[in-house]
Amino acid sequence: MQNIQTGNPVCLxxxxxxxxIELMIAVVIVGILAAIAIPAYTKYVVxxxxxxxxxxxxxxxxxxxxxxxxxxxxATTLALLGMSAPADVAANYxxxxxxxxxxxxxxxxxxxxxxxxxxxxxxxxxxxIDQAGTKGITGTGTVTGCW
Length: 147
Prior knowledge:
Blueprint: H1 20-71, H2 87-90, E1 93-100, E2 106-113, H3 115-120, E3 127-130, E4 135-137, H4 143-146
Antiparallel strand pairs: 1-2, 2-3, 3-4
């Protein structure tokens, strides 16, 4: 092809880059992936935090059984057991021991979610275990699904 005025050859350069429609398709694909991935990741994180709390209250239950052999009663606080909640558990759960002075004595260890964990873990809510090893929850889910 030649320039009409000068008669010199004209090179047509191909435009490089993305068209608007290609960019819009990419944005839609990213949006769909984010809509699927973010809730799945959030659920994974909530489950991991709950598993850490469950592991800790199982450790507390084991210490309670050792404590009753020595003191003839269950401990009323974590401090009496020489324990404190790890940072990752304490940031997401309040752990408490509830004792009943009966014959025989009993206890229940509760891990109650706080902050973001409270808002995101309505399925299980507070997880607990008692002296008989019975596991419980206060949420709408099932014990087997939450433990």
